[in-house]
Amino acid sequence: MIEDAINRNCIPPGGIFVEASSGNTGLGIAMLAKQYGYRSKIFVSNSCSQEKISILEEAGAEIEICDNSNGLGDFQSTQFKAQSYAAMQPNAYFTNQYYNTQNIRAHYKTTGPEIWKQTGGHITHFLCGVGTGGTISGVGRYLKEQQQNIKIWGVEPTGSILQHYLKERSIPAQIAPFESIEGIGRNFVPGSFDPTPVDHIFQVSQDDTKAIATAYRNETGILCGFSSAAVLACLHQYAADMHLKPTDTLVLFFPDHGSRYISKLYSENTKSVAHA
């Protein structure tokens, strides 16, 4: 998204890259902006972990905290405020990951081929969290082009609407707040979500996600991030429904590290989970 904006002269030298983010994309933008000699301003919701905010600031980003990330239709959302700020600043460019086709293209051109190469073309199933939809759309497109029978699965929090949209190709008549799992889940359909290559979207609860993160840490010593833990929770909960065979190769996509979620995932979390 940054390279596209620079190549098309959408931002002046030394300008400001603006994004609405749960933190992960924002961090990538902040780091690349600084590397290329630009500034960055990231709008995050008030659910963003303090660890992420600190990392963003260390990367040089200016941070603005908003009430929610409910999309452009909400005047208090990260998306609306980011777009409004960029529109009022002549030296700013809104990368707009929720509606930027370069979001999908980046994963089609890089993440998908990397997975295909690292599995030697033997991947049979791909499972990742769904937030903007860019990852599952881009990776899914690429993998389906290599082998149409590969299953592309997503996971989102309980109450998010993308599972319904995938099945019905419509927005639910009633939209209620979904459980908070930072980085994934939506109450609107992002333009960067292409349902075409997606076979199914599972839903998991926040409690189960937190519990599996702790169980995984205790077993492996590895701290996984919030949406990464949701992928594990999905596998734990739905393994029987996935009908996986010993010869299958399932890739679990972990986009973030648990060091960004210490206060949210690994403090005072005592709920236990049976071993998968």
UniProtKB/TrEMBL annotation:
GO terms for biological process: alpha-amino acid metabolic process. This is Cystathionine beta-synthase. Keywords: Pyridoxal phosphate. Residues 8-256 form the Tryptophan synthase beta chain-like PALP domain. SUPFAM superfamilies: Tryptophan synthase beta subunit-like PLP-dependent enzymes (SSF53686). InterPro entries: Cys_Synth/Cystath_Beta-Synth (IPR050214), TrpB-like_PALP (IPR001926), TrpB-like_PALP_sf (IPR036052). The keyword Coiled coil does not apply. It holds the Pfam family PALP.
